[in-house]
Amino acid sequence: MSVKVIDLEETATHTGPKGVINDWRRFKLESMDQENLPLAKKELLRQMSSPNKPKDDSRANLNRKMSVQEYELLKEEDEGCLKKYRRRCMQEMHDKLSFGPRFEGVHDLDSGEAFLEVIEKEHHSTVVVVHIYKVGVKGCEELNNCLDCLATEYPTVKFCRIDAVSSGAAERFSDEVLPTLLVYKAGELLGNFLACTQHLNEEFFATDVEAFLNSYGLLPEKELPGLEDEEENDVE
Length: 236
Fold this sequence. Notes:
alpha/beta; Phosducin, domain 2; Glutaredoxin; two-stranded antiparallel sheet; 9 helices; sensory transduction; phosphoprotein; Phosducin_thioredoxin-like_dom; Phosducin_N_dom_sf; Phosducin-like_reg
């Protein structure tokens, strides 16, 4: 009796049903804990993951052959592996759709010229959040701390702060209207929140500021958690 075989192409294209299926199969092979597998399964994995291409370039030999036993090994239910594969695909798609620069921390602006430059010259897809503050004014220090936290959560948003005096417009930004949050994108003012802490509770946190900005649709969607972080959470 002849052994039934199933074709598995040498390279996954990530397009079309066959490409997706083959990509999933390779991912599962790479994810298996081969050290703890029975010897029979180890040998199957070795054969299926061999990078050596056949010397015969005929069409019959260019396609890798997978036996029924090998196919059964691949299709064994593995919910954890499937979740990891789905996250990887989502992360790859997210990375491809993410445009524009990335930033670290809150940027301190030391002059009105620096303030204008960050608004006018930043990438057109970048949201710029500027906090105008003054040392000693209630709420300014707390808001600075909140923006420090949000900057780590939204690396594609450029968070900045500038002292009202350094901005050259101290007369426009008196203590009564501080702290002020200004939000720009592509040079256009999207949000102008004077004395913004009046919209928050007496004691507020980064999540409160985040919710406030999101209520106006000013923040992009959060980036997906790192794959390694999620895998660690699954283990826990």
